[in-house]
Amino acid sequence: MTYLCYIDESGTPEVPGTSSHFVLCGLAIPIDRWQEADRDITQILKQYGLDDGELHTAWLLRVFSEQNKIPGFERMDWAARRSAVQRHRAGELLRLRKAKNSKPYHQAKKNYAKTAEYVHLTIDERKSLISQVAECMAKWDYAVLFFESIDKLHFDETRTGRSVGDQAFEQVVSRFEQFLTRRGEPKTHGLLVHDNNETVSKKHTALMRRFHDEGTLWAKINRINETPLFVDSKLTRMVQLADLCSYAVRRFVENGERELFAPIFGRADVVERVVVGARHYTKMDCACLICEAHTPWGKKKGTKRAS
User: Fold this and answer.
1) Average pLDDT of the segment spanning 68-78
2) Residues 6+ apart with CB under 8 A from 74
3) CA–CA dist 245, 234 (Å, integer)
4) Backbone phi, then psi, for 23, in 5-degree steps?
5) Of 86, 94, 130, 197, which has the most beta carbons under 10 Å away?
6) pTM, whole model, 2 decimals?
7) Does residue 71 have a cis peptide bond before it, meaning omega lies within 30 degrees of 0?
8) Is the Cα torsion angle 39, 44, 47, 51 positive or negative in sign?
9) pLDDT at 119 over 50
10) Which residues have CB under 8 Å from 86's CB, separation 6+?
């Protein structure tokens, strides 16, 4: 049996960066269930006119302010909505282009490009789409989730000897390897499939080569083959699901939002009722759902959750 573990991140690993947390998620699926999983998600996307579109959670869940400025927008059909939004955006870009400060123009142009394929859907429809996908994943008893969520305020790179990004990657790799080992079957192996990013690809390839030679702090790497395969997330549905998972985890640890987090957390790797596949690296007395589920003895003030 071979598992494909799709990896994506949310937040920035730099300190302080633009987020308080950095999250790296890995969603593992048996290779013989890939077609089934891909078909399930495609069927949902077809309901929203996105069967060929990219499922990018953060952009889908943004408020498109121009939709609120178009009279009767919700009563329009999809084609009319697209046309109305495109006209409004074209006018806005022309207005911004005439301004002395070009930064708003370039930012708007980028935002419009990232959200162009979603403009026919209202914000409620987009929320419904993402919720449906999360609920669909929650039913996949063959899928396994691994993630490391790091609160950068409580992370000391000097003490750990690792950067935030390196720590997250090492944790996800270790947990995936331990899961594969527990399967018992000698022929059980895994591959990492990562969203393509030139900087990250070089770093994670080098780290994985080192892990193969030396192991990680927590595991020898015998079951994960090769270095990560880097793919364009626009073309790979399962990496897009890893993106949804990482987004949901970060929104939970930063804002306490549970709607997307609750269903996907149910897929986290579990051993004897302890969630071993997920961790919230934060203050020692944190009593959030992740910390409680990850600690065998439950909440115990002053106990470092470093396993």
Assistant:
1) 97
2) 122
3) 16
4) -125, 130
5) 130
6) 0.92
7) no
8) negative
9) yes
10) 119
* 237-255 and 123-138 helices, crossing angle to 10°: 100
| Residue entry with tokens 């970060």 | 250
What is the pLDDT at residue 300?
44
Residue with tokens 């073309």: 235
Using CA atoms, how far residue 161 sits from 148, 164, 216, 297, in Å, is 17, 10, 13, 28
Instruction: Provide the residue ranges of all domains of the chain, joining segments of one domain with +.
Output: 2-43+134-294, 65-118
> Exposure of 163 by Cβ count < 10 A (0-12 exposed, 13-18 middle, 19+ buried)?
middle
